[in-house]
Amino acid sequence: MHIDLHTHSTASDGTDTPAELVRNAAAAELDVVALTDHDTVRGHAEAIAALPEGLTLVTGAELSCRIDGVGLHMLAYLFDPDEPELARERELVRDDRVPRAQTMVRKLQALGVPVEWEQVARIAGDGSVGRPHIATALVELGVVRTVSDAFTPEWLANGGRAYAEKHELDPFDAIRLVKAAGGVTVFAHPLAVKRGEVVPEASIARFAAAGLDGIEVDHMDHDEPTRARLRGLAKELGLLATGSSDYHGSRKTVRLGEYTTDPEIYGEITRRATGAFPVPGAGGTRPA
Fold first, then answer.
1. In sequence order, what E strands does the chain have?
2. b/e string for 238-274 if b means 16 or more Cβ within 10 A?
3. In what helix (H) or strand (E) does residue 233 lie, and over which residues does it extend?
């Protein structure tokens, strides 16, 4: 089985619509794909309606969190999307995205970058606006070569010159809320140091004690020594070790299924979840 548990669509900051994403996942010969847009489940219905036979969809979201001034992302899988407390927190985060992005645009303008809010809004379309949309604007303007090049201290990385904070969950609250909604939590790219400051391993141990289920180990922003370190940490803390692409369509160079999760780990995730269940494909046509 080929299992990719971290992807994004136009419902947040990917370039594939949810329907395109599941079709592309089938074309990439994936057996399981998770749709984990930032702080939203808006793309799930479209993905399910287009889901090709032979492909299973794991519903989820990537929750924006912050602790001790450090931002982090928590992947939440197979939770009840209608659980009111978690739904309210997702809405608070989404509502803060536009003013936060507008603040970053103003900071870039003060740095001499000729970016306009209208440009960023056009790139975001109907998605939840975020830093990748602003990074794409910087690429269009020739300020940076790639979207990844914008996520540096010079520009949009955590604490960078044009960075602005938004409403974010306390990670302990995120773990509690997702668990109460019947879901499973995995700390996304925990040691992606090129994105900015990361939380110390002692914090990961505290998350594990609070009910964190796993950590994302195999990821494009982790080099081999980092993956080995994380694999050892997962074993030490009794956490599930996942792998996934963090696919954003053409906004990043990573391919669907470039990094995957072991089937036994996936099985344990589905066993723990009670808020929702993986959806087997039936609505769309699998590419030949």
1. 3-7, 32-35, 56-67, 70-77, 184-187, 214-218, 240-243, 279-280
2. ebbbbbbbbbbbebbebebbbbbbeeebbeebeebbe
3. helix 224-237
What are the backbone angles phi and psi of residue 248, rounded to the nearest 5°?
-125, 20
pLDDT value at position 284? 53
Half-sphere exposure of 104 (CA within 13 A, CB side): 30
Listed in sequence order, the residues at least 6 apart from 155 whose beta carbon sits closer than 8 Å to its beta carbon are 108, 135, 138, 143, 144, 161, 162
Amino acid present at 74:
M
Q: What is the pTM of this model?
A: 0.88
DSSP-based three-state secondary structure for 120:
helix
Long-range contacts of 96-103 (CB under 8 A, 24+ apart): 96/166, 96/167, 97/39, 97/128, 97/129, 97/130, 97/166, 98/129, 99/166, 100/164, 100/165, 100/166, 101/129, 101/130, 101/131, 101/133, 101/134, 101/164, 103/164
pLDDT tens string 28-69: 999 999 999 999 999 999 999 999 999 999 999 999 999 998
Q: What is the pLDDT of residues 175-189, one digit of tens each?
A: 999 999 999 999 999
- Torsion-angle region of 260 (φ positive above 0: left; ψ -120 to 50: alpha; else: beta): beta
Dig out the tokens for 160 from the structure. 């960078």
Query: Are 62 and 31 within 8 A, CB to CB?
Result: no
Query: How far is it, in rounded angstroms, from Cα 20 to Cα 142?
Result: 28
